[in-house]
Design goal:
Shape: elongated
Largest sheet: none
Order of helices and strands: HH
Number of helices: 2
Structural class: mainly alpha
Radius of gyration: 20 Å
Helix content: 55-70%
Number of strands: 0
Number of domains: 1
Mean pLDDT: 82
Length: 58
Amino acid sequence: MFGLGITELLLILGLLVLVFGAKKIPLIARGLGQGIRNFKGEIKAPEDDPESRDDSSR
């Protein structure tokens, strides 16, 4: 994965735990997942918002 070995991944994980703390990491991951899910949903959703249309279509 991106040329990273097990040692590098463990080092990055250890640094994340030191910086954010063990209790914050699941909250950060959950927020990131929800953000990605919302982004994908907005891309797939049809343009229902009348403000998003340009004025030349009226």
